[in-house]
Amino acid sequence: MSGEIVLRDYRPTDLDAIFQLDQECFSAEFRFDRESMQIFAEEQSAVVRIAEKSATEIVGFVIVHVERLAKEWRGYVVTLDVVEEYRGRGIARRLMEQTELRIAAAGARSMELHVFTGNERAIRFYEELGYKKIAIRRRFYGKAGLDAFVYRKELDYL
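RE: above sequence
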């Protein structure tokens, strides 16, 4: 059991570890600064799940905000990060599935996210989870001006 990955809720003491993980997972144009990461993780509407190994090492996390859109609620995936050596082990899938269940239980009817148009691995992952491409956002990613696809998944079935 010493290598078991458990999922738990975010604690403010996780901030440094998730910030560092985000720095390792993404190139500069996709990273969040520490202040933004704290704001996202500690937002009142945030659902943050942490994947932890041996109760000491964070190997992944997801931040989702619950937002009111017109007449319904939705979840918005701010970021999903998994340590590279742990990718392909189902951690991201578990994080997303647990979060979707929580968001649906909170009354959200859908989840949305942005993904860089050149990130084929992430695109495949989200599509395997049932997300559908609904739009493209030109110049979404900061100073680099990189485009993003917008993906959406209906949560009515949950």
